[in-house]
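Researcher: Next entry in the queue.
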Amino acid sequence: MGQVDAGRAHTCPIGADGRVACLGDNYYSGQASVPGDLGSVTQVSVGDRHTCAVKSDGTVACWGRNRDRQANVPGGLGTVTRLLGDYPLWTNMPAKTSVPANLGRVTRLQAWRNRTCVVMIDGTIECWGDVVSTTFVE
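Model: Structure for this entry, 138 residues:
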């Protein structure tokens, strides 16, 4: 088995073949229902009721609850090289209420509670989803 991540009520491991299989609560949002066309992934990040994965080609796919648009993948996201580690430290910082456009190349991605955050190549952080003023610091 490869990498695994766990959220509030669901867990998603990556098998040796690169396929994700999520277990646990799926009742409200479909966060444990892996899309049939997802294909092979290198990393997975589990939020409260949404899940994001970095596919083998470096693109990102998210599914599950999208009430705060946290599962929307920006059209200009580009490739992602790795996910952030588990349990980031959160500090105050304004969030975006809509998905940022044309993000370009991203070095890290993290799904957490009702938001998704990325670290850009230049080190800046972009978050979208829940508008509560929080973001992470490594």
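Model: The two ends are 26 Å apart (CA to CA).
Researcher: Noted, moving on.
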